[in-house]
Amino acid sequence: xxxxxxxxxxxxxxxxxxxxNNFAMSDVPPSYRVAVVDVSKVVGSSAQVKAxxxxxxxxxxxxxxxxxxxxxxxxxxxxxxxKKALEDKYSxxxxxxxxxxxxxxxxxxxxIDKNISATIEAQAKAKNYNIVLAKGVVLYGGDDIxxxxxxxxx
Length: 154
Known about the structure:
The chain is mainly alpha-helical. Helices cover 75% and strands 6% of the residues.
């Protein structure tokens, strides 16, 4: 009798366990597909990002030349009032140039980010993936579509 009670209890636990497992897995479709993308690799190989970096370097060089010219101009002035006024003028112009440069960079970088995100989304939909995760977040599993994204982004 005691063995029959243990068998019944074991069978009940098994049935409850299977029911809970099926309930927990009921939201996951049988053909659920997950992709992973190494976003930093995609960004690093993007022609748009490379062009933006080159453009930023050229503009930074321009600003350095501007600062050197300003220093020479300020050093050439001997009157302290005129020197102070010239320093203020160059400081305001430099801040204006820097702010404009940062704003342009942020705008262009945001557009590139949207383009890359749209490309990832389009590739995921074309290949019937339900979800795309950053490669660094996934420990195991998922189809790596980084190479496909890089081909399209270039």
